[in-house]
Amino acid sequence: MRKNNKTHIIFFTIAIALLLAGFIILLSASSVRGIEEHKDSWYYIKHQLQMGILIGLPGFLLLSRIDYRKWKK
């Protein structure tokens, strides 16, 4: 089966754009609370990045190795 690289690039670009939009929304919604509670307006962004890297990235890499057709069974 031949992979379509253009499709992969489009989906990757969309995923990155959604990720960045989420970070912008999180920052705008939590910066005041971060200053009040933790004296750092970037506290929640840092926390989200740490958890995404420590938990999300290994989970993504693990699940991306599994053939989705096997899950159907």
Present the secondary structure layout.
Blueprint: H1 5-38, H2 43-64, H3 68-72
What would you say this structure looks like, in words?
- The chain is mainly α and about 70 residues long.
- It has one domain (about 5-70).
- It contains 3 helices and no strands.
- It has helices spanning about 5-40, 45-65, 70.
- The mean pLDDT is about 85.
What is the structural class?
mainly alpha
Q: How many structurally independent domains?
A: 1
String of helices and strands: HHH
Fraction of residues in β-strands:
under 5%
Q: Helix count?
A: 3
- Contiguous low-pLDDT stretches (5 residues minimum) are none
Sheet bearing the most strands, described? none
Rg, rounded, reads 17 Å
Mean pLDDT: 87
Global morphology: elongated
The percent range for helix content is over 70%
Distance between the termini: 21 Å
The tally of strands reads 0
Give a short overview.
With 73 residues, this protein is mainly alpha-helical.
Attribute tags:
single chain, 73 residues, mainly alpha, 84% helix, elongated
